[in-house]
Design brief:
Number of helices: 26
Distance between the termini: 54 Å
Mean pLDDT: 89
Structural class: alpha+beta
Number of strands: 14
Strand content: 5-15%
Shape: elongated
Radius of gyration: 32 Å
Low-confidence stretches: 710-716
Length: about 725
């Protein structure tokens, strides 16, 4: 089947290219139709309390999102008119201000203190705007834009949904720059080590098609996160470019054996498919390990990237051969001198001092593990954004003027008595850091029956058998203070209603912290075990997998430990994602060198000579592959204003270089030292199965030849 497919591809390159273009058009449609989710908190496991609370806010309360609008130095008539206009905006469920409660005819100093403290500060006043669609939905984003359009320059719209809106705008603005930099820098890196100016462009064209197919087929997932959107293309470029390089080198090798370049490409496709399908398994395993995160963002990144690797391999064995056959003459015409790196002296030095390098390997684990385990991470999602964004400025103003850094939404049974609710709100108000508490009972004069209360106001606080209390806190999200406050708040609320829920940005972020702590350990263990198994099957060895994974794990520990020694605090998601990706993508460097080492041993070479040849022949491939990964991600790390994206890309860029260095300079020494043990714990390490069979047949044939003369003599 593979032979027939390869023959068809090489005989119909124009048809293959035409088909690729048709698929590209369909992929662009799929890309445009795929929704992008900008709310990381929406990826929390749905069985946790805070997401359950969000669902209740969404339905029946129609308060899926809440923003705070601060109006400075404007007359009350303006604010009341603004409130009425905002309530007319589609998907705004309510705009709560003093006029909703007591009217604007009553002088400010006569408004009850508990209400005045909520809505006034200095010469500014605050409106609470609520939406009936989820905080990151397209409808809410559009509603926020319309609310902003109604406001003057003296208005500041704050809240998590507004931050999401500004994040969306920033990602859309930066995305073309990400792609441009990744392509440009990758082209420069490949041009340094390749002899043709057009060959890197051909590779980029092929990977570009694979990226488009990957992003287009995301339509079947319904939506992807903005983080996945931002890094998927550059990651796919970085981890799969060496597949194209391998096919091309194999093609040029086969050209020396065939007169017809189509036959040479046919042979190259068959050889490349077997090698690439095996090589890509470790990368796929690294990405799929992310699917085991409780935070569903991991599954989002993992599925998209694993699919991307599969499509990259498919494009390399189907589309790239057709492109190369069509452009072969032009590629050969535009040749140039390239960089020839020779690490033979360094390799010889490392092998002469292999015991020293083995000791260095072991000693490096001490600072690396210490740094990795003590590196600080932050969970405040708005901290990763430019602090001059309109939403961040508004949030800061909300905290400074109203001492309101975050809001807790408490959802309880509606059948609690007024006495119980008043006791509960009193205990909440006494908690350290709680600035104001908004509840149905606290806003209504005592003794007023429900049927006297305006229905619009009642529906804000009571819906579908639930009642809502809003508690504002001066403690910032993802701090120790707010974590302690939430514990105390939960204890109080559950004592009145064991089935109650507490939600809001702070509560959801606290659940995020608990989830991420487990995810980091689980995904790393799963990725290590999966890749150990793949390498074990590949080499039929018990020791080779441990050695190769240990080398790359050292590189990962060094990479993730550097922020501790530099005093850098990184976003929480970065180490979890990078650990799996770096292991899956760069363990191929170690596999390449080990495979060549085994090949040289099976040719009958001595151990030191075999590893020297393996190191020298693998150097340029490892360097080229790591440089492409470095260039594809480093440009984004420098230009992105969103720290979650820039941190992930910086760690990946640095990780590619560190993995290459340990593979080039430490792995050869370890392989040479451990080779006797590897030989005892591996099948067919020094003799390939085919060689053993060949020797056995030769032995049997020589035995028959020895018996033949004797038999002939007797017959004679």
């Amino acid at each position: 089947m593979l032979s027939k497919t390869a023959h068809f591809i090489t005989r119909h390159p124009k048809l293959i290219v035409t088909f690729a273009v048709v698929l590209l058009a369909a992929s662009l449609v799929g890309m445009a139709a795929t929704r992008i989710n900008y709310d990381i908190l929406s990826y929390l496991p749905p069985d946790m309390d805070s997401p359950k609370g969000e669902k209740i806010l969404e339905d029946p309360f129609q308060m899926a999102a809440t923003t705070m609008l601060i109006v400075e130095g404007m007359p009350e008539a303006y604010t009341n008119q603004l409130r009425q206009s905002i309530e007319q905006v589609d998907h705004v469920s309510s705009a709560l201000w003093v006029s909703s409660l007591v009217g604007i005819q009553i002088p400010t100093n006569m408004i009850p203190e508990e209400i005045r403290d909520v809505f006034y500060s200095g010469d500014s006043t605050m409106l609470i705007v609520q939406y009936d669609t989820p905080g990151a939905s397209d409808e809410t984003m559009k509603a926020i834009d319309e609310v902003r359009a109604l406001c003057s320059k003296s208005c500041f719209l704050a809240g998590f949904s507004v931050v999401i809106r500004d994040t969306r705008a920033l990602v859309d603005q930066e995305m073309p720059l990400y792609i441009l930099l990744a392509v440009l820098l990758s082209y420069v890196a490949m041009s340094l080590t390749m002899e043709s100016w057009l060959l890197p462009l051909t590779f980029l064209m092929n990977i570009g098609l694979a990226i488009a197919y990957n992003m287009g087929t995301n339509i079947f997932l319904g939506e992807i996160s903005y983080i996945t959107k931002a890094i998927a293309a550059i990651l796919q470029l970085g981890v799969s470019m060496d597949y194209s390089i391998f096919l091309y080198h194999r093609y040029k090798e086969e050209c020396t054996r065939f007169d017809d370049k189509r036959d040479a490409m046919e042979a190259a496709i068959q050889a490349a498919f077997t090698s690439l399908s095996g090589s890509s398994l470790t990368t796929i395993a690294g990405f799929l390990a992310l699917c085991f995160m409780q935070l569903l963002l991991g599954r989002d990144i993992g599925v998209v990237m694993a699919k991307g690797v599969v499509l990259a391999v498919a494009s390399v064995v189907v589309i790239l051969p057709a492109l190369l056959l069509q452009l072969d003459g032009v590629i050969e015409r535009y040749k140039h001198p390239c960089l020839h790196l020779d690490f033979d002296r360094l390799n010889r030095f490392a092998l002469r001092h292999k015991a020293l390098f083995a000791v260095i390997f072991l000693l490096l684990f001490i600072p690396a593990v210490y740094g990795q385990t003590h590196a600080e991470a932050y969970y405040q999602l708005d901290r990763s954004l430019p602090q001059d964004m309109d939403s961040i400025v508004a949030n800061d103003k909300l905290k400074e003027d109203y001492n309101m850094a975050t809001s807790h939404f408490i959802l309880l049974r509606d059948d609690l008595s007024s006495t119980e609710v008043n006791e509960l709100t009193g205990q909440i108000e006494d908690l350290d850091g709680i600035t104001t508490v908004l509840a149905y009972q606290s806003l209504m004069p005592k003794g007023v029956p429900d049927f006297f209360v305006p229905e619009d106001l009642r529906e804000i606080f009571k819906q579908g058998g639930w009642q809502m209390i809003m508690a504002n806190s001066s403690y910032a999200t993802a701090t120790d203070e707010v974590a302690q406050q939430l514990k105390q708040l939960t204890s109080i609320v559950k004592s009145y209603d064991p089935g109650a829920y507490i939600t809001g940005e702070a509560a959801m972020t606290e659940d995020l912290i608990v989830t991420a702590d487990v995810d980091f350990r689980v995904t790393n263990y799963i990725s290590i075990l999966a890749i150990l198994l793949i390498i074990c099957i590949t080499f039929r060895s018990a020791t080779v997998p441990v050695l190769l994974v240990a080398v790359i794990e050292l590189a990962i520990e060094i990479n993730e430990g550097i922020p501790y020694f530099t005093g850098t605090v990184i976003p929480f998601i970065a180490p979890t994602v990078v650990g799996c990706i770096q292991l899956g993508a760069t363990v191929d460097y170690a596999i390449l060198m080990t495979s060549r080492f085994r090949e040289e041993l099976q040719k009958g070479r001595e151990r030191d000579e075999a590893i020297r040849i393996a190191a020298s022949s693998s150097d340029i491939s490892i360097i080229t592959s790591s440089l492409v990964m470095f260039c594809a991600t480093m440009g984004v790390a420098f230009v992105s204003k969103i720290e979650i994206i820039s941190s992930i890309c910086l760690l990946l860029a640095r990780g590619a270089i560190i993995s290459a260095l340990v593979s080039l300079f430490i792995l050869p020494s370890l392989l040479a030292l451990c080779e006797p043990l590897i030989a005892k714990t591996s099948l067919y390490w020094r003799n390939a199965p085919e060689a053993r069979k060949r020797k056995k047949r030769q032995s049997e044939d020589s035995g028959k030849e020895e018996q033949q003369p004797a038999l002939s003599g007797r017959n004679h």
